[in-house]
Structures are given as C-alpha cells and as structure tokens.
TrEMBL record:
The keyword Aminoacyl-tRNA synthetase does not apply. Keywords: Hydrolase, Metal-binding, Zinc. It comes from the Bacteria. InterPro entries: ArgE/DapE_CS, Bact_exopeptidase_dim_dom, Peptidase_M20, Peptidase_M20_dimer, Peptidase_M20A. Belongs to the peptidase M20A family. Its cofactor is Zn(2+). Pfam families: M20_dimer, Peptidase_M20. Signal peptide: none annotated. Gene3D superfamilies: 1.10.150.900, 3.30.70.360, Zn peptidases. GO terms for molecular function: hydrolase activity; metal ion binding. It comes from Umezawaea endophytica. Residues 201-325 form the Peptidase M20 dimerisation domain. Transmembrane segments: none annotated. The lineage of its organism: Bacteria, Bacillati, Actinomycetota, Actinomycetes, Pseudonocardiales. This is M20/M25/M40 family metallo-hydrolase.
C-alpha cells in the first residue's frame, strides 16, 4: 500500500493494543451492580484516539460506569453514507482456576494473545483502533466517513450500550448506512488448504421467554388435582422436545452451495442436518441456523417440601430464524395452550443480502492477503449489537477478518476457557481491515 520505511503501521501496534485491552477486566455478569471496567476501557480507548488527534464522545448510557466511546473520521466524499465500525468492550466472566494463563493477563506467548476477550471481541477492537490511529497519524482519508464506536454491555443485550445509544443518541450514527463488527470474516479450512472466509449476513432473533403456570396452593399430603409444578413440567417437556420446521434461509443456502463448490460435498434438502455434520466443529453453529430452537434454561417453583405452590415458572432461551417470528408465536401458542402464560424480552433477527460494493470490497481485501480464498455468507445462531443498529436502518455485516490455523476450534473459544487469538491472525486482520476501509 505504498508505505515508506519508518512509518508505524497498524500491524505494528495491534498486538500490544489487544494485550493491553485484555488486561483491563471488563467483566459483564449481566447484573449491572457487579459490572466492572467498562469505564476504564472506554477511557483507555478515548485516550488512544485522542493521542493521534481524534475528537471523541464519551457517553455513559443510563448508568454509572457503562462507558461508550464514539469518534468520526471524515471521508473524501461526505455526501456518501457513512460506514460504522463497532465493537464491544465488555467480556463474559472467566474463572482463573480453569485457565492455563490468567484470563486478564493479556499474555503474548506461543504465538497467541491470551485472555478473556481475545476473540470476543477485544481482537477486533484492537484492530479497529490500530487502523483508526494509523489513518489519523498519516493523514489517510477514507472514501467516506467512518464512525468508530466502542460499546458497553453487548454480552447482556446492549441495554447499556448499542441499544441505549440507538434509542437515546441516534445522532452519533447520523448518515450511517452500513456497519461491520464481530463474528464474521474468520477463515475455515475445508479441504487440504482450501480456505473460506465467512462473512456474517444474518443472525437469529433472541427471545428470553418466561413461562408461568398457576394452580391451586395446598398441603402436600392431600389429594390435589391442580398442581402448578406438574403443569409447568409438562409444558417445559413439551417445548423442550418440540422440533420446529426446517427452513433454509438464503444466507444458509449460499453458504452450503459455496462449501459444495469448494469440497464437492452434497447438502441435500432431505438430509440436511445429517450432511451438515461433515462440517466438523462448525456444524454445531451451522446446524443451529436450520430451525428455530427453544431450550429451557431455568426453573423456579415452591419453597417447602410439603407446600404445593400456586405458581411455577420457567425460562426458555428461544432463537428464531429471520422471517419466522409470527409463525414461531403461533406454533408456541398451539403447543402450550392458553393456560401457560408467556412473556418475553428479546431482540429481532437480522438479515441482509450478500452482494453490492461493500461485499465486493470485503472479498477483494481478503483475497489480496490470501489469494485463492473464497468468501461466503453465513448466519450466526447467536446475537450481536447488529440487532440494535438494524433499528436505525443500517445494513449489518460480521467482518472481523482473521486467518486461522486449520486445526483451531475457533467457535469453541467464544466464552471458552483459554480464549486466545493467533498473533499472525491479528496482523493479517489489520492489513485486511485497512485495505477494506481504504476502499469502501
Ligand atoms: Zn462479542
């Protein structure tokens, strides 16, 4: 990219940035009273941006310490829609006794940066920060405005992060038409040395559903025909055993067709789930994008062995394919009947098409660094802050490029023990990201 000697390149500082950021413990337990470190991390990011000349906006989203930072880099054509590059600063908890290194050490050893957040997603935050700093330091003007946003609370739904900002400070994202962030852009090795990079173009919706059943309270020693616990258990069993219909969305079909072209493997409609097993570790995630799911996760009822309680309730983690929300509701109502009360909080599915200039720029920036690689869309079974940004009409992609070793179980590292990211992958990612942002 025509860089002279002596310049500090983004790839020269990305490893240090990732390691430093991991050392700031930003554990998000989901309970706002115990969240730590988001403010310190946001202030650290703001300082790294201000150091090279950015004006930054620091926002605490409705609660003390829930720090978010936003900065805008002016592009050459200010009439074009801006591109949002966002990343979350919080991480899920980690128990040091289970790890080979301390999860908040940011250790750089054996070719990896280790620690909670290494792949989810302090890697991408460090990459974005390294490119943002490089652009400002060296006066590189991207084709259009880039908005960099570093956010709190993604791991608990973004209620103090993306979701709050979208609802309360939408002007920070004015003019943004497209966005990139986590859980996409990583490589999978399919056959010999044939690599495909997966760009996330869709996400299932989330519903955290509460089921509540009422009955008649009474003494545990009596004959009793209206027991809330028994009725709830029946409803939970029914739902836990239920299989929702197979629905192949375009993002899933395009992914499978791409894999077929690379490997020759067949994914016939009549045994899709069996065929998806060929994908190895990835089959857990891809398999979960073929149907809606409803997994019971919590139960609560009663307070004494000889008292029949009047209420029993359960929590069910439901994940719903794009386009299936109404059908899912109907199916649930039919399955559970009118006596099971249902309440939920959640976030909608996300879906966009895998085409256009931005997608072309992603593919070109990948193949410039990894010639011969394929770039394919895929659907994420989980959720990200994209769900919130979709509310502003923004088109969302998961594109945090990483070239990974063939034998690394990448999806297993998310929220896992010994979370780590290859040093080479970070350097690769930052080169791809810089090329992409210069050409989008
Ligand atoms: Zn994440």
């Amino acid at each position: 990219m025509g860089d002279g000697a002596g310049l500090l390149l983004a790839q020269d500082e990305v490893v240090g940035l990732a390691s430093e950021l991991i050392r700031i413990d930003t554990t998000n337990t989901g309970d706002p009273a115990t969240v730590v470190g988001e403010r310190a991390a946001a202030e650290w990011v703001a300082e790294k941006l201000a150091e090279v000349g950015y004006e930054t906006t620091y926002v605490e989203s409705g609660a003390k310490g829930r720090g978010n930072v936003v900065a805008r880099l002016a592009g050459a054509d200010r009439s074009r829609g801006a591109l949002l590059v966002h990343g979350h600063l919080d991480v899920v908890p980690a128990d040091p006794s289970e790890w080979s290194v301390h999860p908040f050490s940011g250790a750089v050893q054996d070719g990896y940066v280790w620690g909670r957040g290494a792949v989810d997603m302090k890697d991408m935050v460090a990459m974005s920060l390294a490119v943002a700093r490089r652009f400002k330091r060296d006066g590189i003007v991207p084709p259009r405005d880039i908005v960099f946003a570093f956010l709190a609370d993604e791991e608990a739904g973004g209620f103090f992060g993306a979701k709050w900002l979208v609802e309360n400070r939408p002007e920070l994202f004015e003019g943004v038409t497209e966005a990139i962030s986590e859980v996409g852009g990583f490589s999978i090795t399919l056959k010999d040395d044939a690599r495909a990079y997966l760009v996330e173009t869709a996400e299932k919706g989330i519903r955290w559903l509460t089921l509540r059943v009422r009955g008649t309270a009474g003494h545990g020693s009596m004959i009793h025909r209206d027991n809330a616990v028994a009725k709830l258990a029946e409803a939970v069993t029914k739902l836990g055993n239920h299989q929702f219909p197979l629905v192949v969305r375009p993002s899933v079909r395009e992914f499978l067709d791409g894999v077929t072209e690379i490997t020759g493997w067949d994914f016939p409609e009549e045994d899709l789930e069996g065929a998806v097993g060929k994908l190895g570790a990835l089959s857990r995630m891809i398999g979960a994008t073929l149907r809606d799911t409803a997994n019971p996760t919590m139960l609560s009822a009663g307070y004494k062995a000889n008292v029949i309680p009047s209420v029993a309730q359960a929590t069910v983690d439901c994940r719903i394919l794009p386009g299936r929300e109404e059908a899912f509701d109907r199916e649930l109502a039919e399955l559970l009947g009118p006596d099971v009360e249902r309440e939920w909080v959640g976030l909608p599915p996300v879906e966009t098409t895998f085409d256009g200039a931005l997608v072309d720029a992603m593919a070109a920036s990948i193949t410039a660094e990894d010639p011969g690689a394929r770039v394919l869309p895929y659907m994420l079974s989980g959720g990200t802050d994209s769900k919130s940004f979709q509310q502003l009409g923004i088109r969302n992609f998961g594109f945090a490029p990483l070239k990974l070793p063939a034998d690394l179980d990448f999806s297993g590292l998310f929220h896992g023990v010994d979370e780590r990211v290859p040093v080479d992958a970070l350097k690769f990612g930052v080169r791809v990201l810089e090329r992409f942002l210069r050409n989008s």
